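pls read this protein:
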Amino acid sequence: MIVRAASRAPDHMSLKPFRFMVIPPDRRDALADAFEAAERELNPGIAGEKLDRAREKALHAPVLLAVISRVQENMEVPEIEQRASAGAALGYVVLAADLLGYGAMAVSGRKVATKAMHRAFRLADNEGLLCFVGIGMPAKVKGPPPEPDPELLRAWQPDAGEAG
């Protein structure tokens, strides 16, 4: 249901410039190895507790999805639009999980762009690991979100010199 909702993200020409990969619990140790390799790539001298923390991040969420963007050559749909579609799909994953009563959190950072992660997920040259989404039952119920800033929405005003 959650990935089905994500597949409804705005997508000019139905390119589906995104895909998802679930990481089952029995493969989390391999993901922890990939997290460790990514951390070592970013910080060659890392050791001890910091390395343990990097590994532990693979083990927390009951359900873990990798969100992968895949930009396709298309004269009608520029790269930025395809990446925006992948971001919208990510947002739909989090929203759908929330509406179903689950907690969901997207986690990214520098490690998602490492060669180690690219290899671990066997990404094609046109693909990139956007983030991971952890899904589970929230430890505590969140309150309502803050009211949006009124400046978030404005009416467009043409330049005074333009013809109406």
Observations:
- The chain has a mean pLDDT of 94.
- The chain has one domain: 2-152.
- The chain has five helices and four strands.
- Residues 69 and 83 are 7 Å apart (CA to CA).
